[in-house]
Amino acid sequence: MGLLLRPVSLGEANDYVERLHRHHPPVAGWKFGIGVEDATYQLRGVAIVSHPFARHLDDGWTLEVTRCCTDGAKNAPSLLYAAAWRTARAMGFCRLLTYTLDTEAGTSLKAAGWWISGQTPPGSWANRPGRGDGAASGSSKLRWEAPGSRKTTRDPLRGDSAFRKPKAPTL
Question: What is the pTM of this model?
Fold first, then answer.
């Protein structure tokens, strides 16, 4: 029997990330999370989805997978990325992003149909007081987008009356 999806709480997801993620700490907040378990009901991975960290990408229609963490279970990351995109679309979002270090292959993202849409320059998150310098700082990152993601043309958060939501991707 294969892996099955299941809901997870933020606390449960963060505990999992704290134990197993290679280079990121738990998150402070989220929009939703998804877990994957095996036939013995053992949690084998989690995905945490939040608003985008980059303010210019937070248009009200875009989310970001901020953590995807597994114990190495075969196909678990691809299953989590695909489920995160289905869930985001069901909630009305039009775009889902995630980032990998430029040294990571992105095999699970490719398997789930994601594509590279950009690259960030190397830098540090410690650019203002209170921000720590994570273990992944200093590395360039690749931005990936879920298949069928669409950019929006206006910012609904600014009350732009000319805003038109793009057509929702077909399910």
Answer: 0.80
